[in-house]
Each structure stands twice: as C-alpha cells, then as structure tokens.
Protein 1
Amino acid sequence: MSEEKTELTMYQIADQFIALANQLSQQENDIGKVGTAMRFASARFNAFEAAIKSTDLAAEKDNALEWFSNEFKAMLNENLDDHIAHPPVPAQKPADDGVQVFNGE
C-alpha cells in the first residue's frame, strides 16, 4: 500500500499561521506586536522568495515590490471587506494605540 501525499491549500497553510498568531496574541496580550511581527515575517519571506525566483533581483526589485504590494493590497482589501460584513468580537483590547491611528485618534 502506498500513502498518498495530501498537499495543503494556501488557505490551510494560512490558517496554521493565523492559529499561531492567535496563540501568540493571547500569550503576549498584544495583537499589534504580533501583527507587526507577522508583517515583518511576511516581508522577509517574500524577499527570500523573490531572491530565489529572480535571475537578477537588483534589476527586478521594483517589479517585485509592485507585484508583492499589489498582492498584499488585494488580499487585505478582501479581508477588510469580510470584517466589515462580519465584525469580529475582540477577545482583548489592544495593548497599544497603533490600530487607533486608523480612526484618527
């Protein structure tokens, strides 16, 4: 009998990152800190991905920045719309006022 390899979907992998982020948010009691760390980790990994896929990263840097930025913006827009339609109930109050910048406070 051979075992079939089950590949995870992008959404299943993302759910694993989100589960870890939720765990760290509870542990640190600071959702802003965890969000910042996730953005940094994503940027770092995406830079690595671009470097691996590129034959001349210096020449392709602007295109990579535009492509990754557009991808992130589209994904963020979709998820913001989802949270507008289905507002989450926060488990904790943000420890910092980083998020409040968005509403002008």
Note: Helices lie at 10-28, 31-53, 57-85.
Protein 2
Amino acid sequence: MARRGKKLIVAAAALLLGLSSAAAEDAQVNTIQDIFRHLRTCWRPPPPNKARPLDITVVVSFNRAGNILGHPRITYESAEATDNDRLQYRIAVMEALQRCTPVPFTDAMAGAAAGRPFAIQFRNRKTSPDKTSPPTQERRA
C-alpha cells in the first residue's frame, strides 16, 4: 500500500511539473496588454480593516530582462484617501511589483518594452452603482 502511495505521489509530481512548464510557456509576455494583465495578477490590495478601497496608478519602466528600471512613481491616488490609506496602497503596489518581476518578456517584447514607461492602474473601488441608491440622471452635453 505504501508503495502504491509513492507511485501516486511521483505521478502527481510529474504531472505538476509538466503543467508548470506549460504554464511558464503560456505566461510569456508578448504584448502591451499582457504586461498589464501580468502585473495585475500579482495585485493584492490591503484588507478593508487596514485601508479603505481606492484607485492608484504607478508609472514603471523595465529593462530587457524584465527587471524594474529606475524607481516606480505613484502618479495618482483617489482624492478621498487618508494618509494611512495611501501608505497601505503604496506598500501593496510595491509588493505587487516585487512579486511580478522580472517580467517574462518574449525576445520581441523585451526590445519593445525596454525603457518605455507604463502607467499601471490598480483599481479597488466598486465601479457599479449601489443598488439601494436611487438612479442618477445623466445630463447630455
């Protein structure tokens, strides 16, 4: 019975290794949209008990190897954010960048993205209207 369990574990490990190598190939960043998608997969906003939801934008550049070039710069934060909210979200953005770099660029994308600034928006506010509030009237221009 123990031998059968070992065989199952070895088979599962081999399957996982095969899946992880396939996932690594699929994870190659080949377009500008892929860069945004890749960075957003690493986004973990602070929990609600630490900071209120807000939107934040960071401008960041990469070198050909996918590492951060220079210093990321926060260019936008929601106006109603407190100093604590801003601090918590800035930390979350920097942690997301650390988790996602180096970016696995394809050779073609590495040349196209190197040195180019990207404005990455991390949104954590609800975009749909609250269902309990009355509908608002839109004005036409």
Note: Strands lie at 56-62, 68-77, 118-122.
